[in-house]
Design brief:
This protein has 147 residues and is mostly helical. The chain has one domain. The protein is 78% helix and 0% strand. The protein contains five helices and no strands. The longest helix has 29 residues. The protein is globular. The two termini are 15 Å apart.
């Protein structure tokens, strides 16, 4: 199960962070500062750590992505029927990851981030559905379904 985890994490983590960088630039902000903000979730002083804080933010991002993907792969491995309906599995995974990150994790650490804006909801749902869930389901189907 390590190979699909690594592949899906690399694909989804890269797509998602590139989207975050594009959104950050669109808003006129610095990608390095966005990455330090990500790192400040588990490491609050990271916003003052310069390049090291940005690298840590990238590591935090890929770690969280790996955890979410591992949970899906675990479920798909133990309940292979999940992979029989990839569209529904993707929608469910997108909804679960959106709720986990944006209604639990982020508000617990950053209370001012609540409530999310309509633009925030739509961009996050897009990212969770098409940049995370869809590639994860496709990788899972490729590696976890019997030949």
């Amino acid at each position: 199960m390590l190979r699909p985890l690594v592949i899906a994490t690399a694909i989804c983590g890269t797509l998602d962070i590139l989207f975050a960088v594009l959104l950050t630039l669109w808003r006129g902000r610095e990608p390095a500062a966005m990455l330090r903000f990500v790192a400040s979730g588990p490491f609050p002083p990271a916003t003052d750590w310069g390049a090291a804080g940005s690298v840590l933010g990238l590591a935090v991002h890929f770690t969280l992505m790996g955890i979410m993907i591992a949970a899906f792969l675990y479920a798909a491995r133990n309940y292979p029927v999940i992979l029989d309906q990839p569209f529904m599995a993707g929608l469910a995974f997108a909804a679960v990851t959106y709720v986990a990150m944006n209604l639990v994790v982020v508000p617990l650490r950053f209370p001012k981030a609540w409530p999310p804006t309509p633009l925030g909801v739509s961009t996050q749902m897009f990212a969770h559905a098409f940049l995370v869930a869809l590639p994860t389901v496709l990788v899972a189907r490729r590696f976890l379904r019997p030949a």
